[in-house]
From TrEMBL:
Residues 1-58 form the HTH lysR-type domain. This is LysR family transcriptional regulator. Transmembrane segments: none annotated. GO terms for molecular function: DNA-binding transcription factor activity; transcription cis-regulatory region binding. Pfam families: HTH_1, LysR_substrate. Keywords: DNA-binding, Transcription, Transcription regulation. Gene3D superfamilies: 3.40.190.290, Winged helix-like DNA-binding domain superfamily/Winged helix DNA-binding domain. It comes from the Bacteria. Belongs to the LysR transcriptional regulatory family.
């Protein structure tokens, strides 16, 4: 097993085609087939099946994928260290919209300005999926908002404390019980189901037996805020994402009354390894300047 074979596997998983993989890696198709056959013989397992004339990874290969990603990433880092290219390379970053738009984008801008030869790949997903990407070695660093992180394979860097608030139009009632008495405001506008603060608020309303008449799921905090500004319901968001609207008195914080909402934190997560990635250190130095 070698880096060439593992790179072929990773590309095949992406393209699902021997022809496209050969074209992408500039190999012959017969060479691709030969390398896969050698790996299947060595591992004593099939790596792909065919379905509807397309390659499909076997369950065995899917289980191997995090290890393959680790191997490839380790190979790249060793080359960087051996060439002393501390200011060159690719850094893969995963973060939710709520962090990307409130501090992380400034850190990225500063980082790119200081280290133009380091390439950044940015992935915008939910917090839970970002952590999955990190564990599968698809990214180098994942940013999440959560109450706590418990994973023995992850380095946890706490960046800031996030106040979670109920928010609505500035002319709406001041408290959650009053707000829910109005049909126009008894409308929960929120992002995807895996959002950590959505899950926290849904647990909160279940514990208090609160009835929400309508729920709308959106995929953008900007769009959520547009709904609120048009008096189309209320939402629950980290306070840093609505700072401008609060300052301009367009939106306001609603008193939950029943009990306080849980406290959340912003974390930067990296996988524990036997060595340090110098690019991560440089990136975290910038992040700590902008997210506090």
């Amino acid at each position: 097993m070698n880096i060439k074979q593992l790179t072929i596997l990773k590309t095949l998983i992406s393209t699902r085609s021997y022809t496209d993989t050969a074209r992408t890696l500039n190999y012959t198709q017969s060479n691709i087939s030969q390398q896969v056959h050698q790996l299947e013989t060595e591992l004593q397992n099939n790596l792909f099946t065919h379905k509807n004339k397309q390659l499909v990874p076997t369950d065995f290969l899917i289980q191997l994928l995090p290890l393959i990603n680790n191997y490839i990433k380790t190979h790249e880092e060793i080359l960087n260290l051996s060439n002393q290219n501390i200011n060159k390379g690719i850094l893969k970053v995963a973060a939710p919209e709520s962090i990307l738009t409130t501090g992380l984008s400034d850190a990225i801008k500063s980082f790119i300005s200081k280290y133009p030869e380091i390439e950044l790949d940015i992935f915008n997903n939910t917090c839970s999926y970002n952590q999955t990407l990190l564990m599968d070695s698809e990214v180098d660093i994942a940013f999440v908002i959560n109450k706590t992180i418990n994973n023995k394979y992850i380095n946890v860097n706490k960046l800031s404390t996030e106040q979670l608030v109920i928010v609505a139009h500035h002319e709406s009632p001041d408290t959650l019980p009053e707000l829910l008495q109005h049909d126009i405001y008894n409308h929960f506008v929120i992002n995807e189901k895996d959002s950590t603060y959505r899950l926290a608020f849904e647990k909160f309303i279940d514990s208090q037996n609160i009835e929400i008449k309508k729920k709308t799921e959106l995929w953008s905090i900007y769009t959520i805020k547009t709904f609120l500004l048009d008096r189309l319901g209320f939402s629950v968001l980290p306070i840093r994402t609505i700072a401008t609207e609060l300052q301009n008195q367009q939106l306001k914080i609603i008193n939950p009354v029943y009990s306080e909402l849980p406290c959340f934190h912003t974390f930067a997560l990296t996988k524990k390894k036997g060595w340090d990635n110098p690019l991560l250190k440089l990136f975290l130095q910038e992040v700590n300047k902008f997210i506090k």
